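Long-time lurker. I teach an intro course on protein structure, and each term I like to show students one example going from raw sequence to a predicted 3D structure in token notation. This year I'd like something fresh instead of my usual example. Would anyone be willing to generate the tokens for the chain below so I can use it in lecture? Attribution to the forum is fine with me.
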Amino acid sequence: MSAPVVRGWCPGALRPMMSGDGLVVRLRAPLGRFSPRQAAGVAELSRLYGNGLLDLSARANLQIRGVAEADHAALIERLATLGLVDEDAETEARRNVVVQPFWQAGDETARISQALNDALRGTSAPQTPGKFGYAVDCGALPFLRNISADIRIERAEGGMICRADGADTGARVTDETAAEVALDLADWFLETGGAPEGRGRMAAHLKRTPLPENFRQINSMPETSQAPTPGTTPQGRLVALEFGQIGAATLAALSTIAPLRLTPWRMLLLEGTDHAPDLPGLIHDAADPRLRIHVCTGAPGCPQGLSETRPLARALAPHLSADQRLHISGCAKGCAHPGATPLTLTATAPERFDLIRNGRAGTPPDARDLTPDALTKALQDAP
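-- Reply from a regular --
Happy to contribute to a lecture. Here you go:
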């Protein structure tokens, strides 16, 4: 078994990534929100130019799958009419912002997110590595601490803080200064060697490079909110997507109900409504065991996937106990969940998986070369 390839960058719309089922075209919606017109348009384009399947990423971006290279230019032209394409690929790569989805129009999260997006579109904005990103999380308590980001803008005692991921302290900011300070921190990251050869992340850089003094002004909040579950919120109704994927027909149906906010938890927020239709691929029950499974695309959609993953996840879900969490990875990269999980299954060949307890997808396994039938028993025997 060959080692998986680490690409070191994320796809966009203008710079898509080739996968096993065609190009993956990632849409970075400003404020993480689709208007009904945009959602309906994306659903139509997914059917017209893709394979009718869309993935919701861990950074709250929506990915159109299965696009042929010959159709990419036409797709971009249509996406531009929906306001979902950046000026160029460099701007798109910089504008990597995840927004706490429970914002209200005109509040601090919305204002700062808009200002940050505008600043990142500027020609002088720092050209950070492809996986480098920002989180705007200015509610009463942060929701995005477990979501990948390198620079975080959050609530702090007596105001707001801009801090580097991996640091407990940061600079005090306001609505007017937050975007500028965030870009200053990104500049510092690049100027101090945080991205040798165009790759690098903030938390790793802090292990070898001390922060500048102005980012040691105030402490971040020690408390954090738990990730939400499907149900009603003050901003609308949360519905989960089975393993983070939605069909074009379901997306089109949702577009007729309300504007949609994308979340980093494999859920959509139907803005301003409590109506949640029963449509294919949607999960409404917070106790559904599928919500406790992290699963990647797997074969054949991912060229590095050694086995199908989603069919196995559906088969194993009923066998999970109420306190079990599971990660199924098509290869040793573990893209769906880079951290350790109580139970991880890593594909080694078609319908063959290694079982890892309390580790990552690439951790030495506790049991090797298990078939799907054997995995069912292994889950039942797991503590």
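Some talking points for your students: The CA atoms of residues 307 and 351 lie 6 Å apart. The chain has nine helices and 22 strands.
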